[in-house]
Design brief:
alpha+beta, Cytochrome Bc1 Complex, Chain A, domain 1, 2 domains, 5-stranded mixed β-sheet
Length: 487
């Protein structure tokens, strides 16, 4: 997603992989001379959390976790580093700083020049990237399996010793500002969703955009980013996920060599503000140059927390996931049939989604739609409300739920064709604190959801007291003569 860079303050975090890089065959790449570093921690035993031929999970002595899934269908490997820090861990006035740090992780380390990390990966015949979310920041490389050791050494180095000059930060601020302009400010639908979240949440940090508000991007400093890095980029707050043509014990030995000696550090207390109960309908409009109007309807809903032993709230969340599938989870689902087809169609496009996971403890059920030509927004909104009422009053069929489960099972199976998708699933499971391979457990639970449970959540969670509505109202461009007059 980004062209980011690297930075670290001397003596912070653990000891870098480059101090042990003599183990990497010199023929693979010439090694830069490492900067002087404090002595490495002595090697210590790791803890086996799970180990089988299909999946292994270890915890190193410094707290970093290692998850390995062998997949021998191709001679490649995906290596990911997951850090449990995202935009919900930011403070007001520094929105987007987690994403900014993701960029700066590519800008240098004690042993790597700006841009060298990605160049080295490309020279191995691999690719790399990174992305930031509300809940996490993740870095990945996909390389020939024979080069796994090299990327583990590189990633451990920048994780432990990220550092860069202020001028690199100054340049990257402009890159991030342009990224925000292109992905949010110039995209009416993205801006509408951003404003929906800001209106839906009054206190929760989910009200802030992951990329940050433009004013915050312009005001936080290089030292602010370095301080954020020192706080959160600790071994006990990270996990390495490897999927590919590898052996778990081989990966564990490499992890112990390059990550295992990184010094542990204390993490700050997480202070995520709880969202107070909503007490009435909220409605916003965005007047923007756009080709089509858009309607978003966000209902507060319970999050899915416990897959091992679901509570009543977890079963409600599972039923809401099933409801989203019944409404729009397959071709010809309820919303598609009722709203986009036939002479009475009111929408060109419609969707339902249940956004019920995340460390914030919040959940949303989101309806989105584009009205058909000439259809008033009020008529479209009423059609969506009527679809929910239909479930609340008449329920859903066993056949509809079976179709949802079939679609979910198929998507889970298809994801196994991609090593990257497998690594993403394992990483997000770890971030959520769910059992690894949570999709399999989730599928088993969805099979148990009944029509009565779906009907019950349709009655319970879709009141105006829990609803925020956002409308994109297209505005015509001003005539060229008028624009000239304003100048």
């Amino acid at each position: 997603m980004v062209i980011a860079g690297c930075a670290t303050a001397p003596g912070q975090g653990g000891q870098g992989a480059w101090a042990a890089a003599a183990a990497v065959p010199a023929a693979q790449a010439s090694q830069p001379t490492p900067a002087p570093q404090p002595a490495l921690l002595p090697a210590q035993a790791s803890t086996v959390l799970q180990e089988s031929a299909q999946l292994a999970h270890y915890r190193l002595a410094n707290g970093l976790e290692v998850i390995v899934k062998p997949d021998r269908r191709a001679p490649t490997a995906v290596h990911m580093l997951w850090v449990r820090v995202g935009s919900i861990d930011e403070e007001d006035g520094t929105s987007g700083i987690a994403h900014m740090l993701e960029h700066m992780m590519f800008k240098g380390s004690a042993a790597l020049a700006p841009g060298e990390f990605s160049r080295r990966v490309a020279e191995l015949g691999g690719q790399d990237n990174a992305f930031t979310n509300h809940d996490y920041t993740a870095y990945y490389q996909q390389v020939p399996a024979s080069e796994l050791e090299v990327v583990m050494a590189l990633e451990a180095e920048r994780f432990a010793h990220n550092q860069w000059p202020d001028e690199e930060f100054t340049r990257e601020v402009e890159v991030v500002k342009e990224e925000r302009r292109l992905s949010i400010d110039d995209q009416p639908r993205a801006k509408l969703y951003e404003q929906l979240m800001a209106a839906t949440y009054l206190a929760s940090p989910e009200r802030r955009p992951v990329i940050g508000w433009m004013g915050d991007i312009e005001q936080y400093t290089a030292e602010d980013v370095r301080a954020f890095y020192r706080q959160w980029y600790q071994p006990g707050n990270a996990a390495v996920v490897v999927v590919g043509q590898v052996q778990p014990q081989q990966v564990l030995r490499l992890a112990e060599r390059y990550y295992g000696r990184l010094a542990p550090g204390a993490l700050p207390a997480r202070k995520i503000t709880a969202e107070p109960p909503q007490q009435g309908l909220r409605r916003i409009q965005l007047h923007e140059r756009a080709e089509q109007p858009v309607l978003l309807m966000a209902y507060k809903a319970p999050p899915l927390k416990n897959l091992a032993q679901p509570t009543a709230a977890d079963w409600d969340a599972l039923a809401l996931m099933a409801l989203a599938g019944v409404l729009s989870g397959y071709d010809g689902a309820r919303l598609d049939r009722a709203l986009t087809r036939g002479p009475r169609r009111v929408a060109d496009q419609v969707d339902a989604s249940a956004q019920l996971s995340g460390r914030s403890g919040n959940g949303l059920f989101l309806l989105s739609a584009i009205p058909a030509q000439g259809v008033p927004m009020s008529k479209l909104e009423e059609a969506l409300r009527r679809s929910i009422r239909g479930v609340a009053e008449q329920g859903v069929s066993e056949a509809e739920l079976a179709r949802v489960v079939t679609q979910w099972a198929a998507s889970t199976i298809y994801a196994q064709d991609s090593m990257f998708a497998q690594a993403m699933d394992l990483g997000t499971d770890w971030i959520e604190g769910w059992p690894l391979h949570a999709n399999e457990r989730l599928l088993a639970l969805l099979r148990q959801v009944t029509p009565a449970q779906v009907q019950a959540v349709a009655r319970r969670y879709f009141s105006d007291a829990a609803l925020t509505v956002a409308e994109l109202v297209p505005q015509a461009a001003a005539p060229a003569s008028a624009q000239g007059a304003r100048r």
